[in-house]
Specification:
37% of the residues lie in helices and 20% in strands. The protein has six helices and seven strands, in the order E-E-E-H-H-E-E-E-H-H-H-E-H. The strands form two sheets. It has a four-stranded mixed sheet with strand order 1-3-2-7, covered by helices on one side. The protein has a three-stranded mixed sheet with strand order 4-6-5. A hairpin with a 4-residue loop joins strand 5 (104-108) and strand 6.
Length: 202
């Protein structure tokens, strides 16, 4: 069994008003955002958010890449699977919470490459992140998107669907991941009773 690992995201959860009588916690741009019913507050709300946070974290560990170390490991797998015959220069990779307009970027100083992947991809499938990594790793050798570049990206059987996934993602109003968990208040009468007593002792 793998040891439990604490999630690496900021501890503070941004609270926003929700339209439903349920609590929804989502991961957006590398941080947690909660949509909660009006007037809900207190220790019971805090407990509910921690419960949902744990559910999301468990899901992320199963389905996505969420730390710089895991991202680097995935990038190494991409190189071994698709670019192992190429002499790539030394490189490093990490997530960037400042990268909002591009999914990935690659810079090369003549000796070492630096790859940044947008934190907006945290929570999305591993194969999507792997496709972005492949794109940026190829840029270590090929600096344009010409025929040589296209031949290399097509080495991945997931490239076309990865590109389609990202194109679809860019059409939504809020670009970024939305991996979420919801706790319907109707299913927890005790929690529901406590949430709507803002300012009163628990």
């Amino acid at each position: 069994m793998k040891p439990a690992v604490a999630d690496p995201f900021p501890r503070q959860i941004e609270l926003r008003p929700g339209r439903r009588r349920s609590i929804e916690l989502s991961l957006e741009g590398g941080r947690f955002v909660a949509r909660i019913p009006a007037s809900s507050a207190g220790p019971r709300l805090d407990a509910a958010l921690e419960r949902l946070r744990g559910q999301l974290w468990d899901r992320l560990q199963r389905e996505s890449v969420y730390t710089d170390a895991a991202l680097a490991e995935l990038a190494t797998q991409v190189v071994r699977s698709h670019l192992n015959d190429l002499a790539l220069p030394p490189w490093s990779v990490r997530f960037s919470r400042r990268q909002h307009k591009r999914w990935g970027s690659c810079s090369f100083d003549g000796q070492r490459g630096t790859i940044r992947i947008s934190a907006h991809l945290v929570g999305h499938p591993r194969w999507v992140i792997a496709d972005v990594l492949l794109h940026e790793l190829i840029h270590l050798l090929v600096h344009d998107h010409g025929s040589s570049f296209q031949r290399l990206v097509q080495r991945s059987p997931d490239h076309d669907r990865g590109r389609g996934y990202l194109e679809a993602l860019e059409t939504v109003e809020r670009v970024g991941p939305r991996i979420s968990a919801t706790l319907p208040l109707e299913e927890d009468a005790a929690l529901q009773a406590g949430l709507f007593s803002a300012g009163s002792p628990d």
